[in-house]
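Ticket reopened. Same input as before:
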Amino acid sequence: MQVSSSIRDPLITGGKTVKDVSHDISRHVENKPANLWYLAMAISVSLLAYGLYCVWMVLWNGIGMWGLNKTVGWAWDITNFVWWVGIGHAGTLISAILLLFRQKWRMSINRAAEAMTIFAVICAASFPLIHMGRLWLGFYWALPLPNAFGSLWVNFNSPLLWDVFAISTYFTVSLVFWYIGLIPDFAVIRDRAVVQGNNLRAAIYNALSFGWQGGAKTWMRYESVALILAGLSTPLVLSVHTIVSMDFATSVIPGWHTTIFPPYFVAGAIFSGFAMVLTLLIVTRRVFKLEDYITIYHIELMNIIIIVTGSIVGIAYITELFIAWYSGVEYEGYAFYNRVSGPYAWAYWSMMTCNVISPQLFWVKKIRTSIVATFVLSIVVNIGMWFERFVIIVTSLHRDYVPSSWTMFHPTMYDIGEYLFTFGLFFTAFFLFAKFFPVINMAEVKSIVKSSSEKTNQDASH
Amino acid sequence: MAHQVTVAEEQYVFRPETKRKLFILLAVGVVLLVLGLFMAMRSSGHDEHGGGHAVKAAEQLVASADASAASEGHEAGGHAETATWLKRLYTTLWMNNVFFAGLGIIGLFFITIQYAAQAGWSAGVKRVPLAMASWIPIAGILMLVLWFLTHHDIFHWTHSSLYAEGADFDPIINKKAPFFFWPLAGGTFPIFFIARMVIFFGVWYWFLLQIRKNMLAEDIHAGTSYWHKNQVLSTVFLIFFGVSSSVAAWDWVMSIDTHWFSTMFGWYVFASWWVTGLATITLIVASLKSAGYLKIVNSNHLHDLGKFIFAFSIFWTYIWFSQFMLIYYANIPEETVYFIERIKNSPYSWIFYTNLILNFVLPFLLLMTRDAKRQLSTLKLVTPIIIVGHWFDFYNMVTPGVMQHEGGLGFMEIGVALIFMAVFLLVVLTSLSKVPLIGKNHPMLEESLHHHI
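Engineering reply: fixed in the latest deploy. New output:
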């Protein structure tokens, strides 16, 4: 028997029944998309097309099209890479870690968050791939494959190679996890299509659901698979950003080499991931009228995660600053002095404002339960997290050990174009997902309709 | 609710037999300590050579051991040298107090996390960490007293000659002076350091008193208002704890190796404290269960505690590995000296590896299966391993920085640990016996009773 304490807020409002759940969520797959959807798709595809042009130019002419120089050999490419990978943390965190912690509120948001994760990881992967220059040789640069290039072999000591393994494993498991979750829901859409007499849709969704029949034995096996995948995903989700942080922290560049990086990057990744989930879901719940499933309470809880992770990141910033001073290492001290007051100080203070100060507004209940404020702040957080990576990467590099090499970084239209390319890719994929796949995990939400809906709580209090 | 399960009121009775056992433990500790002191004093003749030997050994570590060789130099010149046996005693007292202070603090941290996260499963076990937290004021007073007693031996930075021009002047430590001495000048009285210590313990204790008051009031006057009050208090505590736990780790542990630094260190100490605290809570819960108490706690709740221990053993290892690997990989002498000193010298070397076996390998393997986390017998096997393992962890954080190459692990250290353990348990169990063992009006109790995983 499931019991919910009376002090818990309901997770489903509007007195929904199991049947309502199927209907409210499946109908977006069944109905024709709204005009707004076509407009959104048109914008995304245009961005994607322009981005593809820029990517093509870079691939054709080489990395010189970017604004990199001898001193700043990494800039927007890796900033955007880390930014997207970070965003790609929320989905699996919600579906795996919150599952282990039995947080039922994850059920309404996990599907969309996982989809977002997968698209974000694809966007992230595009940056190192393009940075390889000769993409068609990329397999040999990145994978330990026997080859005819003489001594060419991957460098197992390089964290960049660990990245390849970590991210590809993470992507695979996230994709499988997400798809496994979709199977029973595809079957629901198929069953409805059969009733509605739409044979084509029934056939497609039947194939997508692998002919799911939903017998008790099948459900039993299904649940063990989900649990195993959750167990696998948990270390994976933590390992990915840990290894991304090691791309920097294993070096001896002041501002990069610091031991707190792994957990601090993971916290920052969760922080930005939740911000992106909020940005997307606030729009989705409104457009698809899912306010009874993704309630204000869900938004409030996600905002609390943002406060916690934002504050952890804040403690890490302060720790870094303190140790830069306490250590007495001149280079480290200068790197931070330069961050705070050098030519990129505007980036540093943008980061501080967006990441550490602005999330503290969520301590006010009125703000964290306000849709508009949450939407604005979720975007502010992601701007801040972009600046965080920019600050770490560019401000540490642009002041070389040799002052004659000191320089600035200026992005070209191809740096910008490739960033736009990933936005186009991300939103195109997300809008396709929102149209053709159920955006909320129906099977899981149905399991809490009885215990956590508004109706039950009212019954209990009478 | 659909139906009520009646909860029998329980009161822990601190029986004379248990007390006697603890006093025997205390007596054994005292005997071992006296024996250890006697043995250490006897071998003090050897020590005079030992000192010179240590300097030589440090020099052999060439540039990488620069810092420690320098510190030996400081001590040789000017200060009245404390006998090695006394230094050993001071070190182990300080180390044990930091370790057990952590258990008290984690008691409070565990409770506040339960409130902040609206956890339901733990409603039945909360009185155990509450009792553990009653150690906080004692740890605070001990910390202050021990600091005044031992600071010249434990904290290298307290020597005023480091800040004055002369042979002992240390430009690196001189730069750090404001962190300890502000607003006074370096080498005077470390008012900032002491103020932090007093404020941290004072604020932690204040929060404990408030939260405990509400928990006990809830037993008498039912209602959810106390729970909500505690949720607010817990949140504020957690903010304070987030900063103070890191600073405390820098102050009480990292500053012992005054030259060395690591941004991870605050979270490393926290991870060690946290998993030890979880193991201690679980061990006490399991023992109470075996003694027939805590009827509402069943294998589902044990499973959760077991999962916590399993997960945070891995978390500690993650933090350990991240710190070690990044320092090893970058290979900067100022940073690697910390690990070189610990890997290459006795007895730190075997403790360095034992630490990983006791705190990662064994809990990881022993708690891997679902059944293992649900059995009292396995939990009672694994939790002492973790507690002892992290005692070694703290030993290796503190001792090498103070004792250099003269550190020992013998009757003295074991004796002091047993004394701390016995007194800690006497205080905690007395505190536990004074309040009902279960908060019968806890708003999450019903959830906890129906908790099936």
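The longest helix of chain A spans residues 159-196. Chain A has one domain: 18-142+154-446. Please confirm and we'll close it.
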